[in-house]
Write a structure and sequence with these properties.
With 747 residues, this protein is α/β, with parallel strands linked by helices. The protein is built from 22 helices and 29 strands. Helix 7 runs parallel beside helix 8 (176-191) and helix 19 packs parallel to helix 20 (504-512). The site of 1-deoxynojirimycin has 7 residues, from loops.
């Protein structure tokens, strides 16, 4: 018996397993496409037309009769589907028409909401509000559960330090500590009880692991990572997700140092099972088993199946490798039956844990009650408001005065719905989205508001710049809503040039030449490289792709009904050549700020000749309409052991006349260690609400055993010696102090 199986289901799992044929066992390890082929080109055209008409659109899906047949024959364990009717029919084939009546896992990509589309996850992380994201994930789970979904392929917990990578949109940014906090919150949100009709959902943190470190930011590209960086930076969000009950994970497409994630037994067995004792299910990413042949580590599909099952991939997502070859591999003795049984046990255990044997069907009318429920829509507005990041506000041009200003609302995203949904909003509807123009109409009378697109997001379409310039000249202020379309980020959508796409910079230049103040709202799926835009803008709000309530949220912030509080969770480079640029970099032997080492009369330092090292905007940055003053940092525990808690206090005062929320951040640096350490590492944060003029002491209590790293032997340890600690408003500012750790902690 597998030592990892949950004792609760042990007897049931064993009983079922004892009845299974070899083919039925293999069947439990197969995720198959449930739908008949459709003409995607035609469907996407129809969807575009529906979006333009502001009408909802349903993809016309039909069950693939072959899959139904496979389900009845016990050859399929899981599908990827979001249609309650079809899901019930397929569950029926599994539960009532197959020999052993084993229900299906019904998976789906619910990445930032189901029908109530929240901001893209990168934006959500800029709230620094795990409790809010837990609620948002729960709302997504409720809507998904109404569809008969019991398995969510999220959260995406890949650390990403390269904005060229289109999937930076799907995660929580560049930092492992913040990433772990967000991973925990999302798993709790997806998996917490009280889903409609007792349904349950399993989260699937992905993509295990290192996918975000793709060389040159090109999706699926090779990854070269040391074991130390893997353990210090890329694994912690996964570990946090598993510690919070995630019962599945998805093996990544990429290789790490020559070994693809989908046949990597070090990652899938040594780390997951032996070190962490985790007993969940590993599903491959889509066709990732088949792609081992392209990687050049498997000579054919049979070989790929062998490598993957031996390495520890339990479910084959859509490559057909297990269906075609696994039974024979077992019969030939190339794969021990014990390995197959171990994988089947894990899958059955997950199905029992989800209550699918007792409760396989979904009430098809549930969606009427829950989809786009008013409380979910208002949650989406809260998340959108908190996710937006104000990065510039010269002369307090914001908030705008609603009554007496004539406003030119310009840009291709000003009255746009579909793009505001962002990437991976597969079940979202453009018709649900409030545009920025809609939002503005709540504040500005029609005769004071003029909305002109100016140009399209991308391409070389004929420009409407003269109309935009005329509108600007006829106004007191210009609000520019520009950026990327939804399709410019996400899977397989990397970009080499991160400036404004299309002819938008031309539009910006023409508007700036009018001399009217420019308030820019940038809607995008990644950090862009836009120094010229920033320079020409009087104010800059990063609105991201913020989901169905984006327009209202932008208007609430620009008109001051909401005081912005979001802070960046990923650095914004000044130039593509700086990438990867992130706050937790190492010092090097010749730091940029030091005196350097002189040779040939020249001080040599780690710098560029043509750009500073620092990004344009750093991790943690973000302004509000209030101002906060930090004082009196006190290290209350100047000497601590790894078993103790570091306590640091600081006083914060809201020096403005507006109440606001400040995200207070604590960073440390281990000053001398056996291996080099980052210049700063986030170890704590708090969202602090302060009334106008309010002054308060904030206390951080940080367990010292969280201040370690993987040392010379790649084992986790907290070393003795001095540490610096900062508390401040972002990763570049803060008051500092010193503390000393006195005993070593070894893992
Ligand atoms: C491929 C993507 O990499 C993954 O994130 C997603 O969950 C699967 N496809 C299933 O749609």
């Amino acid at each position: 018996m597998d030592k990892h199986i949950d004792p609760l289901f042990k007897a049931k799992v064993e009983e079922l397993l004892s009845q299974m044929t070899l083919e039925e066992k293999v069947g439990q390890l197969v995720l198959e496409n449930a739908f008949a082929p459709i003409n995607w080109h035609e469907v996407l055209q129809q969807q575009k037309l529906a979006d333009e008409r502001g009408e909802p659109f349903k993809i016309p899906l039909e069950i693939n009769p072959v899959t139904s047949e496979h389900i009845r024959a016990g050859r399929v364990s899981a599908i990827n589907s979001a249609d309650p009717l079809l899901n019930n029919r397929l569950q029926q084939a599994a539960v009532e028409e197959s020999r052993l009546h084993i229900p299906l896992l019904v998976g789906h990509d619910v990445i930032h909401g189901f029908r109530t589309v929240f901001p893209i996850p990168l934006a959500e992380s800029c709230t620094w509000n795990p409790e809010l994201l837990e609620r948002a994930s729960h709302a997504a789970a409720v809507e998904a559960a109404c569809m008969g979904i019991n398995w969510i392929f999220a959260p995406m917990v890949d650390i990403a330090r390269d904005p060229r990578w289109g999937r930076v949109a799907e995660g929580a940014g560049e930092d492992p500590f913040l990433g772990a906090e967000m991973a925990r919150a999302r798993v709790r949100g997806f998996q917490s009880g009280n889903l409609p009709m007792g349904r349950r959902i399993s989260a699937c943190p992905k993509h295990y692991v290192g996918y975000g470190a793709a060389e040159a930011g090109r999706d699926y590209n090779s990854v070269e990572l040391s074991e130390r960086t893997l353990r210090d930076v890329y694994l912690p969000p996964f570990q946090a997700a598993f510690d919070n009950g995630a019962q599945s994970t998805m093996s990544a497409f990429n290789e790490i140092s020559g070994i693809p994630g989908t046949c990597n037994s070090f990652l899938l067995r040594t780390v997951l099972r032996d070190e962490w004792g985790w007993n969940g299910v590993v599903v491959s990413d889509f066709n990732a088993i088949g792609e081992l042949v392209q990687h050049g580590v498997a000579k054919d599909l049979r070989d790929a199946a062998r490598l993957s099952i031996l390495a520890g991939v339990d479910i084959d997502m859509e490559s057909g490798a297990y269906t075609k070859h696994l039974a024979q591999l077992v019969e030939d003795g190339a794969v021990p039956l014990t390995i197959l049984d171990e994988a089947v046990r894990r899958v059955l255990c997950l199905k029992f844990g989800l209550g699918l044997f007792e409760n396989p069907y979904v009430d098809e009318t549930l969606s009427e009650k829950y989809i786009l429920a008013p409380e979910f829509r208002s949650l989406a507005l809260d998340v959108a408001r908190q996710s937006m990041v104000l990065l510039k506000n010269d002369k307090n041009v914001l908030p705008l005065q609603a009554q007496d200003q004539r406003i030119a609302l310009i840009g291709p995203l000003a009255n746009n719905r579909a793009d505001l949904l962002g990437t991976w909003a597969v079940t979202g509807q453009a018709s649900d989205v409030e545009t920025v123009f809609d939002g503005f109409r709540h504040y500005v009378q029609g005769n004071l508001l003029n909305c002109v697109p100016g140009c399209s997001v991308s391409g070389d379409d004929p420009l409407d710049i003269s109309a935009a310039v005329a509108a600007a000249q006829d106004s007191d202020i210009v609000v520019l809503v520009i950026g990327e379309s939804a399709g410019m980020s996400g899977e397989a959508h990397s970009r080499a040039h991160l400036g404004l796409p299309g002819r938008q910079q031309e539009l910006v230049n023409a508007l700036a030449a009018t001399g009217k103040p420019l308030v820019t709202v940038l809607m995008c799926g990644r950090p862009l490289v836009v120094p010229a835009l920033v320079e020409k803008s009087a104010a800059l709000l990063i609105g991201w792709h913020a989901g169905i309530r984006a327009g209202q949220a932008v208007a609430d912030i620009l008109f001051g009904a909401e005081n912005p509080s979001g802070k960046l969770t990923v650095s914004w480079p000044r130039a593509e050549g700086q990438i990867p640029v992130y706050y937790a970099h190492k010092l090097t032997g010749r730091p940029a700020e030091g005196t350097g080492t002189t040779q040939y009369h020249e001080p040599f330092r780690s710098t560029y000749l043509d750009e500073p090292n620092a990004p344009l905007f750093s991790f943690g940055e973000g302004m509000s309409y209030s101002e906060y003053e930090y004082s009196n940092l006190q290290v209350l525990t100047p000497f601590v052991s790894p078993k103790e808690t570091l306590q640091v206090g600081v006083v914060i005062k809201n020096t403005s006349s507006r109440a606001g929320v400040e995200i207070v951040q604590l960073y440390i640096r281990d000053l001398v260690a056996s291996v080099t350490r980052p210049v700063k590492e986030l170890k704590g944060f708090q969202r602090v609400h302060l009334e106008a003029g309010e002054k308060r002491e904030i206390r951080f209590e940080i367990p010292v055993n969280t201040l370690g790293f993987h040392g010379l032997e790649n084992r986790y340890l907290v070393e003795t010696g001095e540490f610096k600690v900062w508390i401040g408003s972002d990763s570049t500012h803060g008051l500092d102090g010193i503390f000393t750790v006195r005993d070593i902690l070894h893992s």
